[in-house]
Amino acid sequence: MNPPTTASPPTAAPTAPADAPLLVVFGAGGHGRVAADAALACGRWRAVLACDRREDLWGGELLPGVTVLSPAALRDLPQPWELHVAIGDNLSRRREALALRAGEAARATLASVAHPMAAVAATARIAPGCLLAAHCVVGPAAVLGEGSVVNHTAVVDHDCRLDAWSHVAPGARLGGGVRVGEAALVGSGSTVLRGLRLGAGCVLGAGAVLLEDLPDDARWAGVPARPTRDAAA
Ligand SMILES: CC(C)(COP(=O)(O)OP(=O)(O)OC[C@H]1O[C@@H](n2cnc3c(N)ncnc32)[C@H](O)[C@@H]1OP(=O)(O)O)[C@@H](O)C(=O)NCCC(=O)NCCS
Fold first, then answer.
1. Partners of residue 68 on adjacent β-strands
2. Is residue 16 a contact partner of residue 81, using CB atoms and an 8 Å limit?
3. Per-residue pLDDT tens digits for 111-170
4. Is 68 in contact with 10 (CB distance < 8 Å)?
């Protein structure tokens, strides 16, 4: 038998009430697609729209049924609507969130999006604007700062703290009590031993194993993680 040409979810997403807000996912790239997919699966919003500054994307679809708007079109959206900024690069995500809230999205609430298949402890605290992708785990008493991302299958264990606009990439694992500084990136498939601190703006490379604290703006990779040659120069 031929494989099916289109995939369908195993269960239908719940339907939002007619007076539920709209959601605008800002960023019509791959990360935006992950966020829009998670938002559709939630069934928490009446409709999901996308928005991007790239003119060539306007009027197209990010996912089936998710139309890409221009930023100017946000001013005409019916209230209420919520905004989720979905840009993978941490500094761009922070910059756009600040710019939109000072401009086109001044009346919108910043929304977190958690895929229904994200496992989030009841005692975790999630600030506005976060993305929790499918199959991630956020343990008890973990704290996620504004606009932070826990991507597919990443584990943020008990008592971890992610500062604002940080990103734990797919498959990364943080032991208990790890602190990730503002706008830091924990690379795909990396492991951070419990209790360590990663400074603001630092990058831990894909697949690294971190055994000691990382200073601000450091760029480390490898097993065990060490400064990359560029960063050390
Ligand atoms: C570690 C990283 C930040 C280095 O980026 P960079 O500073 O641009 O470094 P370069 O690509 O110039 O590589 C510098 C050196 O580090 C090595 N290197 C790069 N990435 C590495 C990694 N993940 N593990 C081990 N070594 C790595 C390169 O081979 C190179 O070695 P050399 O100096 O012996 O030639 C980057 O490769 C990385 O892993 N980023 C994380 C990506 C990620 O997980 N994104 C999440 C997407 S959702």
1. 50
2. no
3. 999 999 999 999 999 999 999 999 999 999 999 999 999 999 999 999 999 999 999 999
4. no
Fold of the domain built from segment(s) 114-226: UDP N-Acetylglucosamine Acyltransferase; domain 1 (2.160.10)
Residue ranges of domains in the chain: 22-111, 114-226
CA distance 152 to 87: 15
Which class would CATH give 22-111? alpha beta
Q: Is the CB of 222 under 6 A from ligand 1?
A: yes
Per residue in 181-204, pLDDT tens?
A: 999 999 999 999 999 999 999 999
Take atom 34 of ligand 1 and give the residue whose Cα is closest. Answer: 229
Residues 6+ apart with CB under 8 A from 136: 115, 118, 119, 150, 151, 152, 153, 154, 155, 156, 168
Nearest alpha carbon, ligand 1 atom 17 = 228
